[in-house]
C-alpha cells in the first residue's frame, strides 16, 4: 500500500498517471474452509521503495457478513466502501430482507463498471469475501468491474508468492485451523520476498456467525508451534 504516492496495486514498478509516477505493492489473500471464508492482508504501506507505515488497515468490514480487501488509491477504496454500504442499506430497505453475498458482489461490480465507462475508473484492485445461506464466497475484481468467484485467490505485488503457497496447500473441506495455517503460511511466503509487503497481518473469519477479526493471541493459540509470525506482527487485540 502506498500512502504518499497513493497506491496499493499489483507490483512495485512505477506507473504513470498524469504527471505522477506511482508505485504500488501489497499482499491480500482469501481462501474458503469447510465452514466459511478467511481473508487476510499485510500491514505495510510503502513510499516507493521505502516503508511509509507498518500499521495500515487494508481490510474493510462492509457489513456483518462481507469484508473487502483494498489495493489501489486509498481514497477511492474508502469511497467505494462507503458507497457499497449505502447501496446495501438501500437494497435491504427496499426488499425487506438481508442481502446475499452474491448480490453484494454484483452491486460492487456495477459500481466499478459504471465508473469505468466514464473513462475515469477507480484505481483499485479488490477482493470481497462473504457468507450467506449458500456458504462462503470469494470475489476478485479488476477496475472495470469484471468479477471471478474463486475458492482461493491473492492480489497485490506479493500475490505470485502467496498464490504459490495457496495452490500447493489448499484443498476442499479444510478445517478452520488448517485454513488459518495456510493463510498465514501463504502471507509469510510473500513477505519474505516482496519488499512492498510485510509488518504483520490483519485477518477476518467469515462464517454463519458473521464476520469477525481474529485476535493475534487467538491465532497463536489455535496454531501453536505452527504460528509463523511473532505476536507483535499480527493485527487484532
Annotate the secondary structure layout.
Layout: E1 15-17, E2 20-22, E3 28-33, E4 36-42, E5 45-47, E6 50-53, E7 59-63, E8 66-72, H1 74-95, H2 101-117, E9 124-132, E10 135-141, E11 147-149, E12 152-155, H3 159-169, H4 176-193, E13 201-207, E14 210-213, H5 216-223
Antiparallel strand pairs: 1-2, 3-4, 3-12, 4-13, 5-6, 7-8, 8-9, 9-10, 10-11, 13-14
Helix pairs in contact: 1-2, 3-4
Walk me through this protein's architecture:
This protein has 237 residues and is α+β, with helices and mostly antiparallel strands. The chain has one domain: Glutamine Phosphoribosylpyrophosphate, subunit 1, domain 1. 32% of the residues lie in helices and 30% in strands. It contains five helices and 14 strands. The chain has helices at 74-95, 101-117, 159-169, 176-193, 216-223; strands spanning 15-17, 20-22, 28-33, 36-42, 45-47, 50-53, 59-63, 66-72, 124-132, 135-141, 147-149, 152-155, 201-207, 210-213. The strands form four sheets. Strands 12-3-4-13-14 form a five-stranded antiparallel sheet, covered by helices on one side. A five-stranded antiparallel sheet has the order 7-8-9-10-11, covered by helices on one side. The protein has a two-stranded antiparallel sheet with strand order 1-2. The chain is globular, with a radius of gyration of 17 Å.
